[in-house]
Design brief:
Layout lengths: L3 E11 L6 E6 L5 H11 L4 E8 L2 E7 L4 E2 L3 H14 L5 E7 L2 E7 L4 E4 L4 E5 L2 H7 L13 E4 L3 E6 L3 H6 L4 H11 L3 E6 L8 E7 L4 E4 L3 H13 L7 E6 L7 E6 L6 E15 L1
Parallel strand pairs: 2-3, 4-6, 11-12, 13-15
Antiparallel strand pairs: 1-2, 1-17, 3-4, 4-5, 6-7, 7-8, 8-17, 9-10, 10-11, 12-13, 13-14, 15-16, 16-17
């Protein structure tokens, strides 16, 4: 017998009602064997399934169209925003249980912030290999080295020398997929310290291994980037803002606070619609 499932579509890291990264949010209990199929059918870069497990505690599961992942920043921010809008979740601190661990979430009047894990650094990646997969020269890369970093999900952080180079990159997605599989990472997170609005950096994110060619806002990747920039003394500010998605027509802004060793990543969100599917 088929079951009706309500789905909420939300933009996370948005600028008001515009921009941001779309996520699907499901608040009702769904059989585990149906979740991957629902995520593939919906087609969002990530769909999050949320269950309340205790007082001020929630369990979150994240699925791309192809597989489950340990953590997702924009789906977390978006999912908690839906709880605030639909279930009347009050401002304050909450705990979420994910495959990446138990993390704190702060619900504010305008923005929502989520804790990420302390950064783990897994070593540098060959510059030539990265440049070739992006169809740029080694000289187009920034002064820092590409490096694998994780605050919940492993990404290769890739410095790009200028905003102009960043804008004109035409990635070889098949090669990026191969390199991502080789290094056991989700994908590439590109950044340049030049930006459109004078913020910390402008970024782009490619994850073809998970059937996501490019994402317009990625919380986990920017959390890792903040730690990387701090490690090398490039940025001393404890508050950073990252631009992303402008070249996709979905301008997004991701805020990161370095209150301690673990980054707090947050931003605004907007609920765009609710619809029902049969599963």
């Amino acid at each position: 017998m088929k079951k009706s499932v309500d789905v909420y579509e939300v933009r996370a890291f948005s600028r008001g009602d515009a921009g941001g990264n779309l996520a699907g949010v499901v608040l009702e209990r769904v059989d585990n064997n149906l979740k991957q199929g629902i995520a593939k059918r919906l087609g969002y870069s990530e769909t999050v399934f949320i269950e309340e497990t205790g007082e001020r505690e929630f369990h979150l599961e994240y699925f791309t169209p192809s597989s489950e992942v340990d953590l997702c920043g924009h789906a977390t921010i978006g999912g908690i925003h839906v709880l605030k809008e639909v279930e009347g979740l009050e401002e304050g601190s909450y705990t979420i249980e994910t495959r990446a661990g138990r993390l704190e979430v702060e619900v504010g009047r305008e923005a929502i912030f989520m804790e990420q894990n302390e950064p783990a650094f897994y070593g540098e990646v060959d510059r030539k290999k990265i440049a070739e997969s992006l169809n740029i020269s080694v000289e187009d890369l920034g002064d820092l080295s590409p490096e694998i970093v994780s605050t919940g999900l492993k990404d290769i952080l890739v410095p790009i020398g200028s905003l102009e180079v960043m804008r004109n990159i035409e990635p070889d997605f098949k090669r990026i997929e191969e390199i991502s599989r080789e290094y056991g990472v989700v994908g590439y997170h590109l950044f340049t310290l030049e930006s459109i609005e004078g913020n910390t950096a402008f970024t782009r994110n490619f994850a073809p291994l998970y059937e996501i060619d490019e994402e317009s806002a990625t919380g986990t990747s920017n959390g890792a980037l903040a730690c990387y920039l701090g490690k090398y003394g490039v940025v001393e500010d404890k508050k950073m803002r990252f631009e992303q998605g402008d070249y996709m027509g979905n301008p997004s802004r991701v805020d990161v606070r370095m209150d301690g060793k673990s980054p707090m990543v947050g931003g605004e969100a907007a609920l765009t619609r609710k619809f029902t599917i049969e599963v």
